[in-house]
Amino acid sequence: MKAIQCHKNCFNCFQEFDRTKELNGATKKATIKKIPTSSKKVAKDLCPNTKISLKERSQILATHNKFRSELAAGRVRTKDNIMPQGADIRKLKWDCELERTAQKWAELCQWRHSDESFRNHKGENLYKVNQNFPVNRIREAMQKNFIAGHMKRAAQAWWDEMAWFETYKIGCGMKTDCIDYSNPLLKHMLYVVCHYDPRGNTLNEPIYEVGKPCSKCKRYPRSKCEKNLCAGGGPAVYCKDYYGNCEKRYCSYTFDARFAEDMKKHCNKTCGYCTD
Fold first, then answer.
1. What is the C-alpha separation between 264 and 199, in angstroms, rounded?
2. Do residues 250 and 267 touch, judged by C-beta distance below 8 A?
3. How far is CA 167 from CA 90, 114, 163, 176, 230, in A?
4. Total domain count for the chain?
5. pTM for the whole thing?
6. What's residue 82's pLDDT?
7. Are residues 186 and 273 in the same domain?
């Protein structure tokens, strides 16, 4: 089955009430205004102790999913050709634990990848944005990395992490006033760290399976197709044999209930108990 391979170099409102209070000898009426439902929803949606705004978070998430959707649809152009459609690319959702570990690394202002044990062996991408530019430059920085992944092998790993089919959770952190000593013209930077789960960029493993968008979403239980991506659902479940000597002729041996159950458990692909 054709797949894109990864290279080595290869983010209820409060009830209104009135109260009276005495001011300068006169009784005046003070009103506590309603807090809009949308404001409370924003607070609820944010992660505990977050240092990233809902707007920034939404922008990062939308940027990743936009490019993943375009990749799945076969609309990503490389230096030499157009990437084929992807059958099993997942839609990303925000994860507070990934945000926490990403923020922890961003706070250190280290312009390098963290140790794998630091991020619990999750995937990681790093971005630097000049603070003199608006926040939407975060999107432009990510877009640049996504496109550059096909133009320069040095950026391949960043691109693979953003594009990896099985990844469905992302969390990012930010730190301002980091100093980029490598470039005196861009001293003060906005440092963005993104962590991904499951991690991608695995050597010699497929970045995604080539095929019609969403045609392999059934791999992710309870997922559905949204804008060319498999949205929702749990970890991937693959149709495969788990025993090294599965033969079709054994599948018909149903006279022994225990043997038949073993075949269903260990040779479910060969015996047709599942489809991929």
1. 30
2. yes
3. 7, 19, 8, 27, 11
4. 2
5. 0.71
6. 85
7. no
The verdict on 214 and 250 lying in the same domain is: no
pLDDT per residue as tens digits for the range 11-26: 332 222 233 333 344 4
Do 161 and 249 have their domain in common? no
Of the two residues 26 and 175, the one the predictor is more confident about is: 175
Same-domain check for residues 170 and 60: yes
- How many residues are recorded in the chain? 276
Q: The domain containing residue 126 runs over which residues?
A: 3-11+49-231
193 and 262 fall within a common domain: no
CA dihedral 247, 253, 258, 262 (to 10 degrees): 20
Place of tokens 């992302």: 170
User: Are 226 and 186 within one domain?
Assistant: yes
CB burial readout 88-123, b (16+ within 10 A) else e: bbbbbebbeebbbbbbebbeeeeeeebeeeebeebb
